[in-house]
Amino acid sequence: MSDLGAITLAILVTYLGAEMARKLNYPRVIGQLVISFVLAMPVIKILFPTASIEVISILAELGVIFLLLLTGFQLNLDEFKKNKHESLIIAMLAALVPFSLGFLLGQIWHFNWQTSLVLGACMSVTAEGTTAALLLEMKQMKTRLASIILGAGIIDDAFEIVFLSLIFFLANMNNGAESAHSFWEVVGKYELFIIGIWLAFHFIPKWIQKVQRTETTVSLISTMITVGLIIAFFSEFVGVGSVFGAFIAGLILQKSFFNPKTREKDTRALRIFVFAFIVPFFFVNIGLNFDYHALVNNPVLTASVLVMAMVGKILGTMMAKPFVNLSYSQLHLIGWGLNSRGVMELVLAHIALEANLISTELYSAVVFMAITTTLIFPFVMKAVIKKDPHIMTRGSQKTTLKKKAVSA
Q1: Are 96 and 315 in contact (CB under 8 A)?
Q2: 29 lies in a domain?
Q3: Among 126, 165, 203, 258, which one is most buried in terms of CB atoms within 10 A?
Q4: DSSP per-residue letters across 136-194
Q5: Is 212 contained in some domain?
Q6: Is residue 86 assigned to a domain?
Q7: What is the distance between the alpha carbons of residues 27 and 169, in angstroms, rounded to a whole number?
Q8: Banded pLDDT at 405 (limits 50, 70, 90)
Q9: Is the entire prediction scored with pTM above 0.70?
Q10: Which domain holds residue 322?
């Protein structure tokens, strides 16, 4: 099959999955995730030759970049500032607890300490891409819990960078590179990234002001895409990661972009483009990277990785109860939101596999864990919101009422 044929098939399959989910009154992203398991079947996967899979992988990376760009642009920064205390505490516990459990699990399976560290890192990360897609689709992006989940995801990105640097460091050790040289090289790249982002926050708004005077949707969307790709490329170039750069680009654009009167229209235009054409390749890529043989070759390892990863995220989030103004039910839902893995976790696992830090069996188990945890959250969220429609906003409203009562 040609590349065009593979792209057409990928779009068709995800479209059918999304429409079936919509007919069943579930978010379209659920259908796209479920259909990815169908694409993982050997009979279907054979339709995608190696060259076509590489093309879809590139499009999937673009999908994640644009999705995080849109997420950063639509993130309710005012609400995030109100809940930054909760986000920080939850992010730390939701990363450190599964990391510790993952390392412990590695030791139980008699892995070496490097492999155990990689397993802990893979369990710690959170996939903002799929979580953001669901929140956007269910129109929950501007709620209190969404801000906390995505705020914790922002902080989790810092942990992801640390873990990614750790795996690069271990990989260099395996290849005989000098650790001191690797360490100072990483430090230099992060300094370059900080300087670049500082310059972007100061100079991009001036460019945006000129573009904004045209007041045409095409010009604004083109500028938004260009800024997002430039910063994503810069982040990838310095080793921070294109996904993190895209999210930062969205925050920059939110601060300096668009006339408030036309912002909703322009955002809607970009959202239609992202969700209709680019994001589906992200879900297709998940399916094409899944191997059913992992379930058969070592089911105990696969099950233990899955269970420990889920317990770690939810337990870590629930442990934040004494330090935050959230109910156990809200923390439980946040835990499920942070439990979703995906892009970065697969990147970490892939780099570790290429560096011979983990075995093929462990890699397959980690991929299965990533897909399963990503798939579970939409069902949990829909069920919880149906049972308690105000769970996403509860707390911020109470705070407002208390302030009114005090002033009265």
Answers
A1: no
A2: no
A3: 126
A4: HHTT-TTSHHHHHHHHHHHHHHHHHHHHHHHHHHHHHHHTT--HHHHHHHHHHHHHHHH
A5: yes
A6: yes
A7: 40
A8: very low
A9: no
A10: 68-273+292-407
